[in-house]
Amino acid sequence: MIVVAILGILAALAIPAFVGYVRRSKTAEVAQNLDALFKLAASYMAQENAGRGTDTPTGTYCSVGSDALTPTPTADKQQFLAGPNGQALGFSIADFVYFGYGITGTNQCGWNAAADVYTFYAQGDLDGDGTRSTFELAAGTDDTRTLRHARGFYIHEELE
């Protein structure tokens, strides 16, 4: 009887911890994919100036526009299909994903230095209850028009 009680207590402690570990492992894809989006956007800006043979602030420094969240987040993994602006950056994900990814971009060339340019975001519904986990990475330019990102992610309802 004591052994059964001990096993019940251990199960009551272990199961919620295990569920938390599983949800946290599902969020592991987000940091890598948002970082890839940022690097591709920075490369896109650099490419715009490379063809002109200049790295001075006289280049156009173009950005892409916004893409809606794809795929719509569910509790199951889904295939990611990039929108037209994600395709312009060269962003693709070969594996199925738990999160949907989107871009909020300015879609302009030659903006002022020290401007906000992008917000890259991911949303997921890890347990299928309709509440979404949100991760955002903001990016802007400095005085040299180099694309820089925030020091960390904005995270809301990480494990919902």
Keywords, separated by commas or semicolons:
single chain; about 160 residues; alpha+beta; 6-stranded antiparallel sheet; 3 helices; elongated
Brief overview:
The chain is built from 3 helices and 6 strands. With 160 residues, it is of the alpha+beta class. Strands 1, 2, 3, 4, 5 and 6 form a 6-stranded antiparallel beta sheet that branches.
Structure write-up:
It is a single chain. The protein is of the alpha+beta class. It has one domain. Helices cover 34% and strands 22% of the residues. The chain has three helices and six strands; from the N terminus they run H-H-E-H-E-E-E-E-E. The mean pLDDT is 86.
Task: Please give the count of helices.
Answer: 3
Which residue ranges are poorly predicted, with pLDDT under 50 across at least 5 consecutive positions?
none
The secondary-structure class comes to: alpha+beta
Q: Characterize the biggest β-sheet.
A: 6 strands, antiparallel
Report, as a whole number of angstroms, the end-to-end distance: 37 Å
Q: Please, what is the average pLDDT?
A: 86
User: Could you spell the SSE succession in H and E letters?
Assistant: HHEHEEEEE
What Rg is obtained from the alpha carbons, in whole angstroms? 20 Å
The total strand number stands at 6
Shape estimate: elongated
Number of domains: 1
Q: What proportion of the residues form beta strands (DSSP E)?
A: 15-25%
